[in-house]
Amino acid sequence: QVQLQESGPGLVKPSQTLSLTCTVSGGSITTNSYYWSWIRQPPGKGLEWMGAIDYRGSTYSSLSLKSRTSISRDTSKNQFTLQLRSVTPEDTAVYYCARARSIPIVTKAAADYWGKGTQVTVSS
């Protein structure tokens, strides 16, 4: 059973960089053919796929967030990390990490394993 767990600050000030880590257990992030994604859901809105890193370490980002996001991994810890720069209150959302065989992820059904999500609020 693959499990994903998001971790990071619950509160970030505007203009700062948000850093979140997803720790994976029960499976390796280098397993062939999987994409490891970050997805967020702002209050009252739908899922927004932000980007992913694949089993080879190649990264992918949504066009709308490409200029502000970086995704990296630490294979020794079986973790992957999201950095979102220059945050604003519009970045307030529940942030999820997930595993899938394709990207982007636009529905819950599109990924086979999800983390529980972590609330991030951007406020001064």
> Compute the gyration radius: what is it?
13 Å
Low-confidence stretches: none
* Backbone structural class: mainly beta
> Helicity level, as a percent range?
under 10%
Overall form: globular
Overall pLDDT confidence: 96
| Most strands sheet | 7 strands, mixed
Overall number of strands: 11
How is this structure best described in words?
The protein is an all-beta fold and 124 residues long. The protein contains no helices and eleven strands. Strands 2, 4, 5, 6, 9, 10 and 11 form a seven-stranded mixed beta sheet that branches. The chain has a four-stranded antiparallel beta sheet with strand order 1-3-8-7, with no helix packed on it.
For the structure shown, list the relevant keywords.
single chain, 124 residues, mainly beta, seven-stranded mixed beta sheet, four-stranded antiparallel beta sheet, 11 strands, 48% strand, globular
How would you briefly describe this protein structure?
This protein is mainly β. The protein is 0% helix and 48% strand.
Layout of secondary structure:
Blueprint lengths: L2 E5 L3 E2 L5 E8 L9 E7 L6 E7 L4 E3 L7 E6 L4 E6 L8 E8 L12 E2 L3 E5 L2
Parallel strand pairs: 2-11
Antiparallel strand pairs: 1-3, 3-8, 4-5, 4-9, 5-6, 7-8, 9-10, 9-11
